[in-house]
Design goal:
The structure holds two protein chains of two kinds. By secondary structure, chain A is an all-beta fold. In chain A, strands 2, 4, 5, 6, 9, 10 and 11 form a seven-stranded mixed β-sheet that branches. A four-stranded antiparallel β-sheet of chain A has the order 1-3-8-7, with no helix packed on it. Chain A has strands at residues 4-7, 10-13, 19-25, 32-38, 44-51, 57-58, 67-73, 76-81, 90-97, 105-107, 111-115. In chain B, the strands form two sheets. In chain B, strands 2, 4, 5, 9, 10 and 11 form a six-stranded mixed β-sheet that branches. In chain B, strands 1-3-8-7-6 form a five-stranded antiparallel β-sheet, with no helix packed on it. At the A-B interface, strand 5, strand 9 and strand 10 of A face strand 5 and strand 9 of B.
Chain lengths: 116, 112
């Protein structure tokens, strides 16, 4: 149980284009999903917290107009990197918060974004 | 301010040995302490978690020891195997679990 999928696993795009990453909780409903960015050999950097049906809460320093988050249903959240630039290249990971006995965060497999 | 401090940054252990990773926290409101294992290019996976009402939790070769008075908790990997080589993150959370605070990670290498 508590499986989170993420799509795509890898994406390469040209500078200036937008990229959408999907995060789905496959076997549970997630009222809260989290989006992280991870640089090589570093810890997880929380970008934003998204609650179903409401606006995402962004961490300080994260541009909400650049990283658009939509949490339209209890099983799907999307992150759109708008007008991507090479400095946006990173490993993006989503997670979903379980409920009841499974109160941990359950992470997706991550998306490697490379902006040329 | 780092809410959860993790050490060591890296660890090399011989196969069959015990790997120990330590974490410390300040906020006594934290009531849920998970450990995550991450392999290169993959998302972190929940390994084991503990609540402060118990001092130890064991699942297979993985044990969490929790010291509430010292505000410390640690992960012990018994009989470490090369397949355990990964980065381990500790974390802490409190109700309503809208945020998890992660340690900086420990890169574990188990030598055959």
């Amino acid at each position: 149980g508590a499986v989170v999928s993420q799509h795509p696993s890898r994406v390469i795009c040209k500078s200036g284009t937008s990229v959408k990453i999907e995060c789905r909780s496959l076997d549970f409903q997630a009222t809260t999903m989290f989006w992280y960015r991870q640089f090589p050999k570093q810890s997880l950097m929380l970008m934003a917290t998204s609650n179903e049906g409401s606006k995402a809460t962004y961490e300080q320093g994260v541009e909400k107009d650049k990283f658009l988050i939509n949490h339209a249903s209890l099983t799907l959240s999307t992150l759109t990197v708008t007008s991507a630039h090479p400095e946006d290249s990173s490993f993006y990971i989503c997670s979903a918060r379980g409920t009841g006995e499974a109160q941990g965060q359950f992470f997706g497999p991550g998306t490697r974004l490379t902006v040329l | 301010q780092q809410q959860v401090k993790q050490s060591p940054q890296s660890l090399i252990v011989q196969k069959g040995g015990i790997s120990i990773i330590n974490c410390a926290y300040e906020n006594t409101a934290f009531d849920y302490f998970p450990w995550y294992q991450q392999f290169p290019g993959k998302g972190p996976a929940l390994l084991i978690a503990i609540r402060p009402d118990v001092s130890e939790k064991k699942e297979g070769r993985f044990t969490i020891s929790f010291n509430k008075s010292a505000k410390q908790f640690s992960l012990h990997i018994m009989d470490s195997q090369p397949g355990d080589s990964a980065t381990y993150f500790c974390a802490a959370s409190m109700e309503p679990r809208n945020q998890f605070y992660f340690g900086t990670g420990t890169s574990l290498t188990v030598i055959p």
